[in-house]
Structures are given as C-alpha cells and as structure tokens.
Amino acid sequence: MAFVVYAVVAMLNLISITDARNNLSRFVKEVSQKGKKYVLVRDSVPEAVVMPYQDYVKQEEEEKELWQFRFDRLIKEARKAFRKWAAGQGIDVKKLTEEEVYELIDRI
Q1: Helix 53-88 × helix 98-107 angle, to 10°
Q2: 65 shares a domain with 92
Q3: Which residues have C-beta within 8 Å of that of residue 48, sequence separation ≥ 6?
Q4: Would residue 43 count as lying in a domain?
Q5: Do 64 and 90 have their domain in common?
Q6: Same domain, 47 and 69
Q7: N or C end of the chain: which has fewer CB within 10 A?
Q8: What protein family is recorded (predicted)?
C-alpha cells in the first residue's frame, strides 16, 4: 500500500490527511473491507477517526444503551428520594394523582 502508517496507538493506525487523500480508494478499502481504524492527523495533531460503518453503528447503539441505563438508574434514585421526602412531609404519594406529584416537584 502506498500510504504511510505512522504508528499504531490503542488499535488505531495514524495516517496523515494528505496520505489518506492521495490514496483514498485504497484507504477506504482498508477501513471498510479489513475493518481497520485510523486516526487522521494534520501536523502531528489528531483531527478525526475513521472506522468501518458497522463499528460506528455498534458504538452508537452501545452508547445509547449506556445512556438509557444511567437514565433509568437516576430516575429510580429520584423516585426513591421523592418518596422519602414526601414521607417526611407526611404525604402518601400513593394517594396522589400524577398532576399532584408534578405540582409537588415544581414546589421543591
């Protein structure tokens, strides 16, 4: 292959933007068919990451799942804290309508 790979860092190959541009077809083939990942560098500074599309989709899905997990955990903690606060105020949250719960939250 004509373009130069400068180094391998954490499973990512470094390549200059110029080398990638000058050998774009081969570069894309390396990424899409062989699954290689590259960090594009300009003046020795990382500028972008190029990876196979399927890897990108998988990464996005995993990120979304992690976000959802964290969100669900925070909601659970918030509900627990709200119930504890309400009990301390002598409020039985089981008897409240959804609207009344939101009104209480807005007042806190």
Answers
A1: 80
A2: yes
A3: 39, 40
A4: yes
A5: yes
A6: no
A7: C
A8: Belongs to the phD/YefM antitoxin family.
Phi/psi for 11 (5° steps) reads 70, 15
Cα(2)–Cα(26) distance, integer angstroms: 9
Q: In angstroms, rounded to a whole number, what is the distance separating the alpha carbons of residues 46 and 15?
A: 9
Long-range contacts of 38-44 (CB under 8 A, 24+ apart): 38/12, 38/13, 38/14, 39/9, 39/12, 39/13, 39/14, 39/15, 40/15, 40/16, 41/6, 41/14, 41/15, 41/16, 41/17, 42/16, 42/17
Confidence of residue 108 (pLDDT cuts 50, 70, 90): confident
pTM value surpassing 0.85? no
2 belongs to a structural domain: no
Report yes or no on 58 lying in a domain.
Answer: yes
**Mean pLDDT, residues 16-37 taken together:** 96
Reported as type and span, the H/E element at residue 80 is helix 53-88
